[in-house]
């Protein structure tokens, strides 16, 4: 669970800095520094937490069966986390695009897993770190993994809502009604990220993925194909 430090913990730190900038800006409304501080931090702050969702899904896929995913668990971390790191360069729209693509990949994985429809791969292709062939690994959907999956869906949804709001807010301009209405920001940005952080803490992946009982229940069996 070391990856929680550069993801969830980093998100919390950046968000604190961003909201501190908002408080500072309320005391000095004509000072540009706190304004830039809160804009930058509240836009990029959720990105590390979003990366945690990518890693969690990769771990779930590893337990349930990599054969049902177009990307291996390792590539979920490489592709989506590296994409999220470039949000500062291309803006909040790219963050929304990453969320949409991630959601589509996750939805396809769960559909294939539940219907036992593995992705066709080259014969003998194996997932790194596993002795099981990708096409015939089918893990058990234990209660813990099911709960974590629902938590992942919820956190992705609040990220999506937040991204839509920020796009509308910024497209309305710096002098627009939306960006000047604080309650919108508090509910559709601050509250959404707070819900995502609390979701990760309440439904902690360290507890739901790596308990002794879970490891016993999540042994992989082989599909009869």
Structure explained in plain terms:
By secondary structure, this protein is mainly α. It folds into two domains: 1-70; 74-116 and 142-224. Helices cover 69% and strands 2% of the residues. The chain contains ten helices and two strands, in the order ααααααβααααβ. It has helices at residues 5-27, 32-44, 46-64, 73-84, 87-90, 92-114, 143-171, 182-202, 205-209, 212-217; strands at 137-138, 221-222. The chain has a two-stranded antiparallel sheet with strand order 1-2. It is elongated, with a radius of gyration of 20 Å. Mean pLDDT is 81; it is low at 124-133 and 220-225.
Q: Helix proportion of residues, in percent?
A: 55-70%
Overall pLDDT confidence: 81
Rg of Cα set: 20 Å
Distance between the termini: 35 Å
Secondary-structure content class? mainly alpha
Order of helices and strands: HHHHHHEHHHHE
What's the count of strands? Answer: 2
Largest sheet: 2 strands, antiparallel
Low-confidence stretches: 124-133, 220-225
Report the total helices.
10
Number of domains: 2
Give the neighbour order of strands across the main sheet: 1-2
- So what's the overall shape? elongated
Strand content: under 5%
Subcellular location: Membrane
InterPro entries: RTA1 (IPR007568)
GO cellular component, one term: fungal-type vacuole
Transmembrane segments: 36-57, 78-111, 145-162, 183-203
């Amino acid at each position: 669970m070391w990856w929680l430090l550069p993801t969830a913990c980093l998100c919390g730190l950046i968000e604190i800095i961003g909201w501190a900038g908002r408080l500072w800006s309320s005391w000095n409304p004509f000072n540009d520094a706190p304004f830039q501080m809160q804009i930058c931090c509240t836009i990029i702050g959720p990105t590390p937490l979003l990366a945690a969702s990518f890693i969690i899904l990769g771990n779930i896929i590893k337990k349930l069966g990599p054969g049902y995913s177009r990307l291996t668990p390792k590539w979920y971390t490489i592709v989506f986390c590296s994409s999220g790191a470039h949000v500062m360069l291309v803006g909040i729209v790219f963050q929304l695009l990453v969320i949409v693509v991630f959601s589509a990949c996750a939805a396809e994985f769960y559909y294939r897993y539940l219907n036992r429809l593995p992705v066709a791969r080259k014969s003998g292709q194996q997932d790194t770190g596993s002795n099981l062939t990708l096409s015939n690994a089918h893990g058990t959907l234990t209660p813990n993994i099911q709960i974590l999956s629902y938590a992942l869906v919820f956190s992705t949804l609040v990220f999506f809502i937040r991204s839509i709001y920020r796009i509308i807010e910024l497209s309305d301009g710096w002098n627009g009604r939306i960006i000047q209405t604080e309650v919108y920001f508090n509910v559709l940005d601050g509250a959404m990220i707070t819900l995502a952080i609390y979701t990760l803490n309440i439904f902690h992946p360290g507890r739901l993925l790596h308990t002794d009982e879970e490891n016993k229940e999540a042994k992989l069996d082989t599909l009869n194909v």
